[in-house]
Amino acid sequence: MEMIQIVSLGLVVTVLALILKEQKPVFAFLLVTITGIGIFLFLLGKISSVIRILEQLADHSQVNHVFFTTILKIIGVAYIAEFGAQVVRDAGQDSIASKIELTGKIIIMVMAIPIITVIIETVMKLMPS
């Protein structure tokens, strides 16, 4: 049911944005951006419940909490970078959107270094001397 509401909202805002774009392009952009932020905020509740379930699973499986937290942060950076790039791309700034995506990828790579290091160390221990 929620998906139908989100799609309906998206369709209504799209029609309104197309109408506004002819007269006031800035207002059309603001309408689309505010709607996107609203949808993102709506999803935060869903995301937090998924995170709670994943935390419980990590606790039961005795996964190192640092790795679990790092992976969640990496996922968060990916979503935020994608959302930001889409908003900027909607404004017609493809070049800046590409830079946001590149920055997100680099931040993810930096954040993943501790996990990659542990994986490489583990593989090295498993290899015969």
Summarize the model shown.
This protein is mostly helical.
Taking pLDDT < 50 over at least 5 consecutive residues as the criterion, the unreliable ranges are: none
Largest sheet: none
- For the termini, the CA-CA separation is 58 Å
DSSP summary, beta strand count: 0
Structural class estimated from helices and strands: mainly alpha
- What's the helix-strand series? HHHH
Give the count of helical stretches: 4
Mean pLDDT: 91
Shape: elongated
Strand content: under 5%
Tell me the helix content: over 70%
Rounded radius of gyration (Å): 20 Å
Overall description:
It contains four helices and no strands. The chain has helices at residues 2-23, 25-61, 65-90, 94-126. Helix 2 (25-61) runs antiparallel to helix 3. The radius of gyration is 20 Å and the shape is elongated. The N and C termini lie far apart (58 Å).
Observed structural traits:
91% helix; mainly alpha; 129 residues
Would you spell out the secondary-structure blueprint of this structure?
Elements: H1 2-23, H2 25-61, H3 65-90, H4 94-126
Helix pairs in contact: 1-2, 2-3, 3-4
